[in-house]
Amino acid sequence: MESKSSSLFLGLDLSTQQLKVIAIDDNLSIVFEESVIFDKDLPQFHTQDGVCRHKDMLCVTVPTLLWVTAFDLLLKRMKEKGFEFDRVVSLSGTGQQHGSVYWKSESEKLLKNLDPEKSLSDQLKDCFVVDDSPIWMDSSTTEQCKTLEESVGGAQALANITGSKAYERFTGNQIAKIFQHNPKAYDKCERISLVSSFLASLCYGGYAPIDYSDGSGMNLMNIFTKTWELVCLNACAPDLKEKLGELVSSSKHIGKISRYLSQRYGFPKSCDIVAFTGDNPASLAGVCLKKTDLCISLGTSDTLMLWLDNPKPTTKGHVFVNPIDESAYMALLCFKNGSLVRETIRNRCCESSWEEFEESLRNSPPGNNGNIGMYFHETEITPFAQGTYRFNNDDVALQFFTKDEEIRALVEGQFLAKRVHAEALGFHITEETRILATGGASKNKAILQVLSDIFHAPVFIIHGTTNSACLGSAYLALYGVCGQSKVGFHDLFYKSDKYEMAVLPNVKTRDIYDKMVKRYKLLEEKVSN
Ligand code: XUL
To answer: What is the helix (H) or strand (E) element at residue 283, kind and residue range?
Structure first.
């Protein structure tokens, strides 16, 4: 660990495929990183890409104990690498959004009295009334969504309150399903955590509150009053308010580190914990999003984020409370078929090689001679659709493309969809627009070139890391204890040398893509439900 300053701030990220930690010093430099990859490091849980897909293809869950075991292993690895726990001033974290954890009655007592001689997984293994946590990839709650929307007068009415119409993966609908299918378990449940507040609870040694930004992804919180909306709670399950606990600001200091973590690993007793939030809000913090920026995260899911001051929620996309300015909001679009589809098609067409994938992009012309593809291997969220669709220049459906056509159709299709849906949210590209790309695939310049051409805007990446969510939570750890009252988030964290220009748009492609966006929109309407 190389850092001259003595203070460290930790960010943890419990995402779909891994648990990661980043430490920054007070110059905001990343001085330590470590991770646990679920499939590789914890094979005993039999996950694929970090999750368990059930036979019906709609239910997707993760054994809650996997996440606890991963945290044990991460801390062990940090210790083995000589991480200086005693320098940590504060920590925060982030988690995949919407997933939920169901704590058995009396678990909080256990959390408060953990034995530092034993692992967390040994001590918490019987604490969950539901062993398998539903996660964001689940799409099995269409029935519950209908009921929730009806209870408030329809999809738009629900969006007006909670920022989103009812979505299958949103936590309220998942809770309703658990209550209906397993009422005994629901009854025995004392507290429901999100993935973010769950990890925070492990650090705090007690139930940690849900923050406003991640709370916005539940269909249960009024995004304007930032309180639980009783009609929505009652439509999902009884006594829900008590089980959810309080809501807090995303940069709220929630308490000190648990006695367990301090005794077992050497964190200072004074180490502060700042509320944990969802991965997309944390990413917004990590890239220091400005009002004219568009952030595109290319991870397990691809997401697109915008800053909003006066949101008017619609039935397309989501409005969340902004994690770095509580009086503002953020728009989010989530595309479920992101990296996993890019990897599957790369493996099928390019012998698992990104070099070959890039070569195919270079060999095929922008616009792909009019060929358009949509690859929704999993039931897509934006739009609600499933299957693979290929169209030629005359919009005639095809069974196959050549290898080069297939690769270009995949990448262009993914970014055309992003532009279509960003524009539907009211986003306009201007001279000032910067696209901030993050997530694993943002390393790949050939992919970023297509993104830049389709949006006619320069694409920037963040120096030093592709994991903006984890970095953002380290920023929030610092902000929660040192910043807020004196200065705004951007005053502390915005530095222009943080951004590296990755690619510029090729002006020659402008007309091609302006036309193609219109065709894509119509074709997408044809294939979606
Ligand atoms: C956002 C969403 C995903 C998850 C996993 O609404 O479902 O982006 O947060 O990353």
So the answer is: helix 279-286
